[in-house]
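Sequence in, structure out.
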Amino acid sequence: MKKLKQKPLKQRVFDYLMTGATLTPLGSTTMFNSVSVQRRINEMQRQGIPIERIEKKSSLGNPFSVYFLPLEYRTAIKLGTIEHPFTPASADGNKNDG
């Protein structure tokens, strides 16, 4: 049986955020089975992807971040106004995927 090649972590995180969902550090570790999601988010932000963050507090008062892509950005990608950052022509630097 042929094993399907999985998309790089950075692209999977981006695709997830493109659905309009939010991501927390704990949720991302569980969802993507990786502790390097925060690193990938930082890399995407340095690439110019406008991943935004809001700070919240848990019921115990511990601070944590919630990450999301703004609706305007998601819409522009879907309409083609902005180039999708993971199209073959623009997908660079996905080799160090952690």
